[in-house]
Design brief:
Number of domains: 1
Membrane topology: Multi-pass membrane protein
Largest sheet: none
Main location: membrane
Keywords: Cell membrane, Membrane, Transmembrane, Transmembrane helix, Transport
Protein name: MFS transporter
Strand content: under 5%
Number of strands: 0
CATH class: Mainly Alpha
CATH topology: Growth Hormone, Chain: A
Order of helices and strands: HHHHHHHHHHHHHHHHHH
CATH architecture: Up-down Bundle
Shape: globular
Structural class: mainly alpha
InterPro entries: MFS (IPR011701), MFS_dom (IPR020846), MFS_trans_sf (IPR036259), MFS_Transporters (IPR050171), Sugar_transporter_CS (IPR005829)
Distance between the termini: 42 Å
Helix content: over 70%
Length: 420
Amino acid sequence: MTAPVVNGPRLGLAVNAAQFTLLVVVNALVGGVLGSERTVLTPLAEQEFHLDGYTAALTYILAFGITKAATNFFAGTLSDRYGRKPVLLAGWLAALPVPAMLIWAPGWGWIVAANVLLGINQGLSWSTTVIMKIDLAGPARRGLAMGLNEAAGYLAVAATAMATGSLAAQHGLRPAPFLLTAAYVVLGLGLSLIFVRETREHARREAATHATADSGLSTRQVFALTSWREPALSSASQAGMVNNLNDGLAWGLFPVLFAAAGLSLTQIGVLAALYPAVWGLGQLVTGPASDRYGRKPFIVTGMLAQAVALTGFAVADTFVMWALSAVLLGAGTAAVYPTLLASISDVAHPGWRARAVGVYRLWRDGGFAAGALLAGIVADLAGIRAAVWTVAALTAASGLFAWARMYETHPRDSKEHTSA
């Protein structure tokens, strides 16, 4: 008896290994573009543009966060309408002017404008690689798929943050660090244009065999479900937002805190890299572990671990203590990041899953803007450590909220829940 012939795309990591691996590489390049700013831009604001207030120095993160959050939302909708690959390419095209703008910016407004384009790049390109990997992986190994995706992106953030810190220490804040940015953009665009293939048909194949029939939801309905109506989706959205709120704090104010304590640019680069490095590597463990043990334990524990780590940053004043806090912050974030994305894809129907991911990422990356604004205002009024304490308290509250409201979404462990 012969095996049945499977027509059309097939789901699973093994059968799509080559394309999945390529998308992991592409997302690493997306993360590298982001990482090129994490060590350099805050010192640049102070030393070359003479920005005195913390809020002013954080304007670039605010611009980045608002733009990326909005672009995430449109990435999901556009990828459903026009396909994944065109959206991915649009994201890379938006990044093309960014290195030149950072290198030759005559005023701070140019830096802010470059971060608007960077937000578009990250929103379109990173969101689309997430959606494409979910398309390819199928339902069984989404935690592993998201762990690999986010690990690649944030390990690249870490490596590039360290590399640009070293380049800045040796060759100055401009142009050397941003030449690396330019290389990432050209390589990412080339790989996406020539080698990446469309994956929308994989989602359609999964939708055709899905157990529920609620594939025809409007974008407004998907927004409401993901934002507040559906307990697991909305819990994931708020946790993601608070997670990136504390990342916005780490990105914008930690370099100022470290510099005020007398740390060198190289040491600041190490600390800026350590947190996303642990975050990236940890996701290789937490993503697949959530396929076995469920999503909720990692989400709740991870948020509470981040709160403890932020408390450590607030009370520490030495390189070693900050390094230990950075490791814990990275571990907590690793527990949260891939499992939140996996929980969204567990609950959402394949017919509107890309839009649900877009709405989730809208809220999550809105945390960058909220974190920059909140941390900047509190730091101006009461100092950096007061800002860190404030964000630590919000992070703890977010973890407790997820514990109270969220149910387990993993299909092996969860009871039947409706999505409408």
